[in-house]
Amino acid sequence: MICTGAKPSTLFEKLRSLVVHAPWLVFVGLIFMSGSTYSPGFEDTDWSTRRLALLRAIEADVSRHQIVLGSSSLSSGVSHAMATVPRHLFVPEQFRTLAYDNNPLPIGHQQTISQPTIVAIMTELLAIDPADTVLEVGTGSGYQAAVLAEVASQVHTIEIIAELAVSARNILHDLGYSNITVHEGDGYAGLPDCALFDAIMVTAAPAVLPRTLLDQLKPGGRLVAPVGPRNATQWLNVWIKQDDGSCEIRRIIPVRFVPMVGESDE
Ligand code: SAM
Q1: By the 8 A CB rule, do 193 and 216 touch?
Q2: Is residue 127, in this structure, part of any structural domain at all?
Q3: How far is the CA of 32 from the centre of ligand 1 (A)?
Q4: Does the N-terminal or the C-terminal CB of the chain have fewer CB atoms within 10 Å?
Q5: What is the model's pTM?
Q6: Is residue 61, in this structure, part of any structural domain at all?
Q7: Whose alpha carbon is nearest atom 12 of ligand 1?
Q8: Exactly one of 34, 36, 75, 114 is catalytic; which is it?
Q9: What is the atom index within ligand 1 of the atom nearest the CA of 258?
Q10: Is 264 a catalytic residue?
Q11: Nearest-10 crossing angle of helices 143-151, 76-84
Q12: What is the pLDDT of residues 221-259, one digit of tens each?
C-alpha cells in the first residue's frame, strides 16, 4: 500500500515554472505546435477558451444554488482547478468535443465522468486546505482526482474496476500529477493503511453511507457523498465529523449517480 507521494506538482505550477525558467522553450513549443495537428499532451487556445466558458456556466449554477451551498461563488482554489484541469484528456476520444459541455459523459464499463458543476460543488463542499490529504472513492476517469489534486496536498483515489484504475493512473501520470495515488479495490473498506483523511469524497452512490469511511475521517474533517437507491434520485450529503466522533449531516441537493457496488453492497 502506497500512502505517501512526492510534493504536489500541479499543471499550473509546471507551466508557471516553464514560463519563468525557460521562456524560450515555450516560444519554441508554440512554433512547433502551430504547424502540427492535434497533440493530446499540449493545450491549444480552443480547449482553454471552452474550459473558461464551462467555468462561467458552473459559476452560474453555483450562484443559483447559493442557499443550499451557503455561498454564491466558488473559492479561488476550486475555480482555478476547474479552469486548469484538461477534462478533454479524461474522456474517450469520440466524446472529446463534448468535454466542455456541462454534462456527464460515458467512460466505458457503464460508468460516467460526472457533470462539471457537480465536480466543482462536491470539491467546494469539502472546504479543502492546501495541506490536506483527501480520499476519493470511485476514480472513474481520474478527472475528479486531478481537480482535488489542484487544491490538496495528497490525493488517494480508489477504483473497483481494474481497467479504469489503470487508465486513470496512466493519464494522471502523463499529466504530471505526482501527488495522486490510484488504488485498485473496493472503496467500501476505504483505505485503512492511509487513514485518517482530512476529507473524503464518494463519487458513486451507496444505499447507506459505509460507517468505515466515517471512521477514516479526522475530527473536523468533511465527507461528501451521494446516498440513495439505484436508478432513482439520491441526495448529496455532507458529514462533518465532530471532536467526539459524532457527525453533523447536511443535505445539499438531489443528484443521480451510478451505484456504489462491491462486497458490502450484496
Ligand atoms: N470521479 C469519477 C471521474 O472523475 O471520472 C467519476 C466516478 S463514476 C460516477 C463512479 C465510479 O465509482 C465508477 O468508476 C465506479 O466503477 C466506481 N465504483 C463503484 N463502486 C465502487 C467501490 N465499491 N469502490 C471503488 N469504486 C467504485
Answers
A1: no
A2: yes
A3: 38
A4: C
A5: 0.86
A6: yes
A7: 138
A8: 114
A9: 9
A10: no
A11: 140
A12: 999 999 999 988 899 999 999 999 999 999 999 999 999
